[in-house]
Amino acid sequence: MPSSEIQPLLSATHAKPALYNNPSKQHDVEGAIVIDLTDDPKTWSKLVKWRIILILSLMAFNVSFSCIAVVPISNHILCSLDSKSHSKSASVLLVTAWELGEAIGPLLLAPLSELTGRLPALHLANAVFIVAHVLAALSKNLLLLILARAVAGLAVATTVLNPAIVGDMFVMDQRGSAMAVLTVAPILGAALGPGISGCVTQTLGWRYVFWMSVFMAGISQVLLLSCFRETHRVVKTPVGIVKQSLRESITKPIAILYSSRTLKALCLSHGMAFAVYCIMTVTLPDIFERGYDQSMSGAGLSFMSYTTGSCVSILLCHATLDRISKRLGQANNSGVQPEYRLPLASGGALLLPACIVLYGWATVIHLSISIMLLCLALLGIMLTLFSTPIFAYIVDAFGDYSASATAGVIMTRGLMGVLVPLAVGPVIEVLGYGWSFTMLGASCLILSLLPLVMVMHEGGKWRQWIDGPNHLTILPFQGSYNNMDAVQLNQVKLPFGKPGCRWKGCPMQS
């Protein structure tokens, strides 16, 4: 296999070793100051790396807790702030407004982290997160609360930066364990959040749920200031150049999404699966409270079943994700390829539609509550088994641009997480849960499984192709760029051909 076929898409990671191993290159280039490039995060001790992973896990836990805690109490909040309104769409929007903000936030946070470093982006996001939840706790009307939820989603950094930080610190065949741990934290937050919020609301009131999020975010801020180390070394430039570069970088996630066939397919696939999760979260409280006469806290505790299934899936990924990649690389004599991360995801995508249909019809038939909890556990297994390898693939395939690529995925899934539940609500009212979820399962089979299978079989070829745009500042191949310094690398403009053609000068043409 030609060496270019195993290069990460849109990656400049090959430039980093040259800088780390050549201290003489740490000099001023047109006013630029290179900072501490000899301290390669991949050479840090395990203690330092896993300390950072634990801090990120705490932040991810709080994000997930805050996002999902409002689900079982949304109807109660709606009645408290606007007793005259009983709109189901308003309740759904109160839950999914977070995803709308999360769809936009990565467009700024991901390129900001690549330009200024991961730590400044985390500081900014966490500060905005705290302000948004203070505003939510003090809200006097529903519109202000929905706005605060959207701003909180806008400030979510861990979802898009965690995979990139793992890529900064770990080599490719050691990332599976770190990714698995970072996936467990939000799963635990999603499990505990609904139950705790239900109990707190019944005893103290719903506003205390938001104050809990403020408290945990404050602890995270202290840990960021005292224990976190920058993992993404950058070239510091004058403020004017930074502003100009930031403006250009904000469009990078969209540009990479537009340019990459693999990312388009994964965005569609993962976005549909995430929409299924959002639909489950907005329908579950009504199903348990009205169909099974459960309280708010009881409906919230039902999410524990989903979390149990997710944890089973995480343990499976932890045990097999790196092992499968290595074995496939040895079997194909090609080394570890990003596509070798996806066999587990294909299994989850194949079985997910059946779990969706079972969830819908179990509600219609009114099966026992234990069967419903089993359905939730199966959904947790399949959704997590589907999602975790996809983010591992993005880290491997996109290298230094994994944060921007992840931002593209988060942006797409956030939009689908808002729009699809709003569209499914009226369908459920007309057709009922059974046929509505049958249609949803069929849609998921087409939109989630097929794109994933295409990436598994054609991703290696697609990663050698760029569809545009004309001014994307990226470096997908090693070529003759080895001897350039960091500033020159960031100024490389690739000459693209017509859409659908390989870029001119691609080593694959020879």
UniProtKB/TrEMBL annotation:
Intracellular or extracellular location(s): Membrane
GO cellular component: membrane
Transmembrane domains' residue ranges: 52-78, 144-166, 178-196, 208-228, 265-283, 303-321, 342-362, 368-395, 407-428, 434-455
All residue ranges annotated as the Major facilitator superfamily (MFS) profile domain in the record: 52-459
Entry GO MF terms: transmembrane transporter activity
Entry keyword annotation includes Transmembrane: yes
Keyword Transmembrane helix: yes
UniProt keyword terms in alphabetical order: Membrane, Transmembrane, Transmembrane helix
InterPro entries registered for this protein in UniProt: MFS, MFS_dom, MFS_trans_sf
Name of the protein this chain belongs to: MFS general substrate transporter
Species, as recorded: Ophiobolus disseminans
Taxon lineage: Eukaryota, Fungi, Dikarya, Ascomycota, Pezizomycotina
